[in-house]
Amino acid sequence: MANVDILIVEDETPIREMLRMVLRQAGFEVQEAPDTCQASRQLSQKRPDLILLDWMLTGQSGIDWARRLRRDADFSDLPIILLTARGEEEDKIAGLDCADDYVTKPFSPRELIARINAVLRRFGKGEKPGILHIGGITLNPEEHQVKIDRRPVNLSPTEYRLLEFFLTHPDKVYSRTQLLDRVWGREAYIEERTVDVHIRRLRKILAEFGRDAMIQTVRGFGYRFTAQL
User: Fold this and answer.
1) What's the CA angle centered on 108, arms 162 and 167, to 5 degrees?
2) Spatial CA neighbour of 70 closest among 95, 90, 91
3) How many other C-beta atoms are found inside a 10 Å radius of the C-beta of residue 175?
4) How far apart are CA 16 and CA 38, in angstroms?
5) What is the pLDDT of residues 71-123, one digit of tens each?
6) Residues 172-198 pLDDT 10s
7) Which of 105, 123, 177, 205 is a plausible cystine mate for 85, CB 3.0–4.6 Å?
8) Residue 139: its pLDDT value, please?
9) Which residues are registered as beta bridge partners of 140?
């Protein structure tokens, strides 16, 4: 990906080398740091387009550094993807409070690149998404068109963005606050209950095609979209 620079912060040399190879093969420019101290020095010299950050690092942890960056006016809007071996939903929710996405180890290079491009698109960079097909739902970003079982579906702009986000982030739990950040934008001043309203509307539309169960309520956490019904 020409002119897109990614900073890898990973303390395990073999993993860092693997990430460097995968990213360069995908066309990204790459910076590297083994810890948050060196990563901070590199940030002061050159701002990357995205940080690929290991959760557990020697010294300061990746998640603590991500929280610090979110409080820094110069870097609060810098996209961050956490790499983590933690699979519990509590950990995932905690990670998404300070990062834009997370990838659970072990992961495939294809999944990683797809996640990176999805985050970059939200920030106005990255490749344009192709046509999405999940569970009988087809979303064509270029035509801004949605079909279910090959039948056209009319969605409001917000419902479209919400469905597109779910289709590109299946089987993950997102809190209402996280959905507001990722669908409405961090600068939007909207109450959390607005998310519930649009979830209900989207479910009602999906129910017409027997797909409303694809949006699951995870009590105490938020919502998950899944095609595994």
Assistant:
1) 15
2) 95
3) 18
4) 14
5) 888 888 899 999 988 666 666 666 677 888 888 888 888 889 988 988 888 77
6) 889 888 888 888 875 556 677 888 999
7) 105
8) 93
9) 145
Residue 29 has pLDDT above 80, yes or no: yes
Amino acid at 34: P
By C-alpha distance, which of 43, 53, 31 is closest to 101?
53
Q: What average pLDDT does the segment 143-151 reach?
A: 91
Going by C-alpha positions, the residue among 103, 109, 98 that lies closest to residue 82 is: 103
DSSP letters of 99-132? SSEEEESS--HHHHHHHHHHHHHHTT-SPPP--E
The radius of gyration of the chain's CA atoms, rounded to the nearest angstrom, is: 18
The average pLDDT across 117-130 equals 74
- What the block records as the tokens of 222 is 């938020």
Torsions phi, psi of 194, nearest 5?
-60, -35
Just give the CATH number of 1-127.
3.40.50.2300
The Cα–Cα gap between 37 and 59 comes to: 9
Orientation of helix 36-45 relative to helix 62-71, angle to 10°: 30
Domain boundaries defined on the chain: 1-127, 130-229
Q: Confirm if 82 and 67 have CB atoms less than 8 A apart.
A: no
CATH number for region 130-229: 1.10.10.10
pTM listed for this prediction:
0.61
Look-up: residue for tokens 């409001």?
156
Look-up of token digits 């309520």: 217
Q: Residue for token digits 């579906």? A: 153
